[in-house]
Specification:
The protein is elongated. Helices cover 34% and strands 23% of the residues. The chain folds into 3 domains: 151 residues, Rossmann fold (3-Layer(aba) Sandwich); 163 residues, Dihydrodipicolinate Reductase, domain 2; 86 residues, ACT domain (Alpha-Beta Plaits). It has 443 residues and is an alpha/beta fold. Strand 9 and strand 10 form a beta hairpin. Strands 7, 8, 9, 10, 11, 12, 13, 14, 15, 16 and 17 form an 11-stranded mixed sheet that branches. Strands 3-2-1-4-5-6 form a 6-stranded parallel sheet, with helices on both faces. Bound molecules: NADP nicotinamide-adenine-dinucleotide phosphate (NAP). NADP nicotinamide-adenine-dinucleotide phosphate binds next to helix 1.
Length: 443
């Protein structure tokens, strides 16, 4: 260990890496003041040294060979900010095997290969820190890992993807359809040219896996959680949500049910308009956590972007520099638990929620009674119905129902039967309703 400074190397100088390089250079004196010694940027690996970047670091720092950083005994901390699985995974594993501490912003890597990475880090007595991997600039990892370490977490609900939250906010506010709201998000720089990963929920699901590990000591596999995106939502559903007193959000949720079984799921959900998460608009992220001792808390802030994300990466670097200097690495286990459990979340078919259902039916007498009969047979009780008459010249009308809590298995069986009726002419829209998000103690 170099005693006069802590040296860091960056793998990647894109949106996040450029912000980190900028802070390491422009805020050098401030960080030195906080830390007591310099955090020194030794090298930055990129694919093409001549590419344009959001911030341009000194040319002499750039290399196209990541092994000038990984395995270099003069570099103590390696920040993996390239993204993707390979070569990121190989480089992280090699850095760990060489005794280098790792900071990463790569949620996909940790969600899919976290166990192997954290086990290797423990075996080599180095740390892997990842504050930037979930919710960008919001210090959610430290909050769950340390701030709430004495709490049994009842549940957390998160808005963990800025792209989808921006799209849903535009659909809510302006009544846009999905395609128009997506195009607006792309124009504003909030959505990629290929938005599939965000809009179909996979990015948020990776973050949900990481937060679940911190909250419950269980690192679920992607196959074990229900993942559903936002592309099938229509302006009609936003209209009815407002009429019923709800907003629609893409919600990442983990909770323990009354029998103590773990539920982990990611899907669009209707939340009460007065819930803590309902007002989180635009590209912002937020997490509502309920702990047995602390009660309910809300963390809210920028979930992405060059400087907010760099803020989290720098926080990890400062902590690693301190830990290395004090020779107390692995002070807190990577996920905050001394060991991970092999528990698997319960299957989605066993989850129970309330539901919003929008049937598209022929405007004929007796349709509501037939559908209600099917639901009654399955033991699903209906809380509210909105039935509109057909406009002149139109035969199809929306029929909206809110149900009380029912098991997903019963709901799927009831919907299959209902959708087979001749008078139901499109497959029914189902959105789960999450009343638990309601603001407690609200005036
Ligand atoms: N963007 C955000 O706001 C944000 C927020 C939170 C977390 N993250 C995560 O942070 C990571 C980086 O995201 P980003 O948006 O900064 O990505 P990005 O803009 O695409 O930048 C990726 C960087 O990695 C370099 N790179 C890629 N493959 C490489 C290779 N094989 N060898 C050497 N360098 C390589 C690229 O080099 P060139 O410049 O030469 O192409 C580029 O500098 C991802 O895991 C992402 O999920 C991003």
């Amino acid at each position: 260990m170099n005693t006069s400074q802590t040296t860091v190397g960056l793998l990647g100088c894109g949106n996040v890496g450029a912000g980190v390089a900028r802070m390491l250079i422009e805020d050098r004196d401030f960080i030195n003041q906080k830390l007591g010694w310099p955090l020194s940027l030794a090298k930055i690996a990129v694919r093409d040294a001549s590419s344009r970047r959001p911030w341009t670091p000194p040319r002499e720092l750039l290399t196209t060979d990541p092994y000038e950083i990984v395995g270099n005994p003069d570099i103590e901390v390696v920040a993996e900010l390239m993204g993707g699985i390979e070569p990121a995974r190989t480089l992280v594993m090699k850095a760990i095997a060489s005794g280098q501490h790792v900071v990463t912003a790569n949620k996909a890597l940790l969600a899919l290969h976290g166990r192997e990475i954290f086990e290797a880090a423990a075996a080599h007595k180095v740390e892997v820190m990842f504050e930037a991997a979930v919710a960008g600039g919001i210090p959610i990892i430290r909050t769950l890992k340390e701030g709430l370490s004495a709490n049994r977490i009842h549940y957390f609900f998160g808005i963990l993807n800025g792209t989808t939250n921006y799209i849903l906010s535009r659909m809510t506010r302006e009544g846009l359809d999905f395609a128009t709201a997506l195009a607006a998000a792309q124009k504003a720089g909030y959505a990629e040219a290929d938005p599939t990963f965000d809009v179909e929920g996979f990015d948020a699901a990776h973050k949900l896996i990481i937060l679940t590990a911190l909250a419950y000591g269980v690192l679920p596999s992607l196959d074990d959680i229900h993942v559903e995106g936002i592309s099938r939502l229509t302006p009609e559903d936003f209209h009815f949500a407002r009429e019923l007193g709800f907003v629609i959000k893409l919600l990442a949720m983990s909770s323990r049910d009354q029998e103590g079984r773990l539920e982990v799921r990611l899907h669009p959900a209707m939340l009460p308009q007065d819930s803590l998460l309902a007002g989180i608009g635009g590209a912002m992220n937020a997490v509502h956590i309920s702990g047995h001792a602390v009660g309910d808390i809300l963390l809210n802030g920028p979930g992405a972007g060059m400087m907010p994300t760099a803020s989290s990466v720098l926080a990890d670097m400062v902590e690693l520099a301190r830990a290395a200097r004090a020779n107390c690495s692995a002070r807190v286990p990577a996920l905050g638990w001394c060991r991970l459990s092999d528990e698997r979340p319960k299957p989605m078919s066993e989850v129970s929620t309330a539901y919003y259902l929008r049937f598209t039916v022929l405007d004929r007498p007796g349709v509501l009674a037939r559908i209600a009969g099917i639901f009654a047979e399955k033991g699903i009780s209906i809380a509210q119905v909105i039935q509109k008459s057909a406009a002149p010249g139109e035969e199809a009308v929306p029929l909206v129902m809110l149900t009380h809590t029912a098991a997903e298995r019963d709901m799927n069986a009831a919907l299959k039967e209902a959708d087979d009726l001749d008078s139901v002419i499109e497959s029914t829209m189902l959105i789960r309703v999450e009343e638990r998000c309601a603001a407690r103690g609200a005036a």
